[in-house]
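Obj.: predict assembly geometry.
Materials: sequence records (below).
Method: joint structure prediction, all chains together.
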Amino acid sequence: MMLDLFDFYDKMERNNILLSFKGDITSDLLTSILQIMESKMDNFQEEPKTKKKVYNVLVECLQNLYHHMDEAPVDSGENGRSAIFMIGKLDGAYNVITGNYILNENVTGLKSRLDEVNSLTKEELKDYYKQILNNGEMSLKGGGGLGMVDIARKTGQKLHYTFQPIDEKVSFFSLNIKVTLNQQ
Amino acid sequence: MEKFTLEGTPKTPTINFDLGSGVLEIKGRSIPENSIEFYKPLVDNLEKYGLSPKPATTVNVQLEYFNTSSSKCILDVFKKLEAIHKGGSSVTINWHYEEDDEDMLEAGEDYQAIISVPFKMVQVAE
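Observations (raw structure tokens):
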């Protein structure tokens, strides 16, 4: 297959993608990505407040991928452990877009969690966060379901997502998080 | 005097716990993928300290970032401190946040609402 590289480039350019990656998400990779994004934001001379917000959201989004990409291994050889993410800056907002496979049996559960988070007001999110934080449960991965609530709280935006059915076993989950600059 | 210290890394905070003087300092970033593993030694040391604590215990938390994976571990640390506070050592948690960092202030207030230990919100310059 011959890839149309310019087509990729052009689409990324038009969406002002600062950084993109597809492949295995490792701890070291995340360390590097976070460092790169920090220096990019320094170069853009972003307000400390903006930098912190974007950084926090990035950490949660990327660590979500790190923790959950194993749950739906794809049979196709080298792509056994793979996910994608892109970070862009467009129209005064940072966009963090992530994509990974998810087992079909887990789609309903995740979807209802995301919808629940999206249905809550700022105050309700705060209470919900404290409730999950204090319920004593902790997943082995440590997150315990706080990530999405935290992202919604910090961005003040709804979580945009899609589930694309792939086959009888898996779907592809995409999450698009927008961090608006100079928000209240 | 017994001390427990951990050098900070890009993903984990510096920890200085002077068990002899009852001062614990947590400073930097706390964004490890596996935070349970990272915080376990601190929780263990707090447990040990709790057996014969100093009359006053001071805790200085000055985090630049922390992830949600750390947030539960930080709560575990505070719960140990709450037990120490109830056990007779007077514990104070100084929660530092940078000017303009409302998220960090709010995070401190979340803990304050959950934990029965006196919290002081300390604003620091950027």
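Conclusions so far: Residues 133 and 146 of chain A are 7 Å apart (CA to CA).
To do: check interface contacts against the pulldown list.
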